[in-house]
Amino acid sequence: MGRSRYTIKEPGQPHFLTCTIMEWLPVFTRPETVQVLLDCWQYQRKEQGLKLYGFVVLENHLHFVAHSERLDKCLNSFKSYTARKIIDYLQENRVDRILDRLRFAKRAHKTDRAYQFWQEGAHAELVLNEAMMRQKLDYIHHNPVKRGYVAKPEHWRYSSAANYFGGEPLLEIDPW
Length: 176
Hints:
Strand order of the largest sheet: 2-3-1-4
Number of helices: 5
Oligomer: single chain
Mean pLDDT: 92
Strand content: 5-15%
Shape: globular
Largest sheet: 4 strands, antiparallel
Low-confidence stretches: 1-6
Number of strands: 4
């Protein structure tokens, strides 16, 4: 198995995951870049057995709770695919300032690419029980409220809060 800094100790169990863009760059301020994430999750749910229980996408990072028999493989696939698609989008739209920062931030050992989009790792936390699942979902859904972006969790467009609190969800998730 290749180098990895994130550890999914029990890949068949739900985990709370955080993925952060290099240098905390604000890439998810564009609907097109968020759509890449949503499309990837939708594909993984249908084709790779991913169970997605909740998510939030903020301007420079995301949190989600997920489960699959090979969550480590799903996470690797998610990060690889979304990085490639979003870098392609940034290149097509000549978002040179962000591309320059992603080029500069690339780790020296990453010789197979010009840019590094995601920080290494995903701060994986095993969800041990029902109470911990509720705590993680509450944290995810209240993150935009805590930051002062919205008054209620269900008002944040790029979140699964609408799935839980009523509203029109962007993406089907798996109920917990």
